[in-house]
TrEMBL record:
Domain Deacetylase sirtuin-type: 1-245
Listed InterPro entries: DHS-like_NAD/FAD-binding_dom, NAD-dep_sirtuin_deacylases, Sirtuin, Sirtuin_cat_small_dom_sf, Ssirtuin_cat_dom
Key words of the record: NAD, Transferase
Organism: Macrococcoides goetzii
PANTHER family: NAD-DEPENDENT PROTEIN DEACYLASE, NAD-DEPENDENT PROTEIN DEACYLASE SIRTUIN-5, MITOCHONDRIAL-RELATED
Name of the protein this chain belongs to: protein acetyllysine N-acetyltransferase
GO MF term (any one): histone deacetylase activity, NAD-dependent
């Protein structure tokens, strides 16, 4: 019954916003942060917690330790888009205006071909020199003997274009996020616990007709008319695909 409701909501909606968290990419082999087996629960082989390591102050003070953790825990160059990423791209082929708002930093939505992707926390795919701002892709990084990426032009540290702890979200991305959610006919919230602010607060801006929530565990209170699934995202999308045409 709820799958049919979801399908009908998709058919009725023109402007669709997908707000996704770590659960979107776990089926591509990328761990989340806060589950029992998540990144924040793993050993760092140091006196520092993962939260401390991915902070701006730690990066500035201990760049080698930061990048050891970064390349081991945050970068997955071989990861591929899963059914969820591909389904969202497919919706565009049905003449839907789809905006992806993601808390993930893996670049998989772009790899799947989605046209409009707003990355609230940036991406490990893009990197830039902190001295001259020269941009480098992940494949273009040159590491020194200690494992720190360096700019060939001036030797400056090349950092990932992500939002670390203690850093603010990009103002332009925030503005685009607010506009997209505020103007959407349909909002799909998936794979996020809605516990990370300010990102989670953006969901409250939605005033459209159809709200769909997909998460393995129950979320905080959502609209009484929301279509709620406590399941894997790909499992739900697969059922919708089988009923879509």
């Amino acid at each position: 019954m709820r799958i049919q409701q979801f399908k009908q909501a998709l058919l009725d909606s023109k402007k669709i916003v997908f707000f996704g968290g770590a659960g979107v990419s776990t089926e591509s082999g990328i761990p989340d942060f806060r589950s029992a087996n998540g990144i924040f629960m793993q050993e760092t082989n140091s006196d520092f917690s993962p939260e401390q390591i991915i902070s701006h102050s730690f990066f500035k003070r201990y760049p080698k330790h930061y990048f050891d953790f970064h390349f081991d825990k945050l970068v997955y160059p071989d990861a591929q888009p899963n059914l969820a990423h591909k389904f969202l791209k497919t919706l565009e082929e049905y003449d839907k205006e789809v905006t992806i708002i993601t808390q993930n930093i893996d670049g998989l939505h772009q790899l799947a071909g989605s046209s409009t992707v707003l990355e609230l926390h940036g991406t490990v795919i893009n990197n830039y020199c902190i001295e001259c701002n020269q941009n480098y892709s992940l494949n273009e990084l040159t590491l020194d003997e200690t494992g720190i990426p360096r700019c060939p032009e001036d030797g400056g540290i090349v950092r990932p274009d992500i939002v670390m702890y203690e850093e603010a979200l990009d103002a332009g991305t925030i503005e685009s996020t607010i506009q997209a959610i505020s103007n959407a006919d349909m909002l799909i919230v998936a794979g996020t616990s809605l516990s990370v602010y300010p990102a989670a607060g953006f969901v409250d801006l939605f005033n459209g007709e159809h709200l769909v929530v997909i998460n393995k565990t129950p979320l905080r209170a959502v609209r009484h008319d929301a279509i709620v699934f406590e399941d894997n995202i790909s499992n739900i999308f697969n059922q919708v695909i089988n009923n879509y045409n």
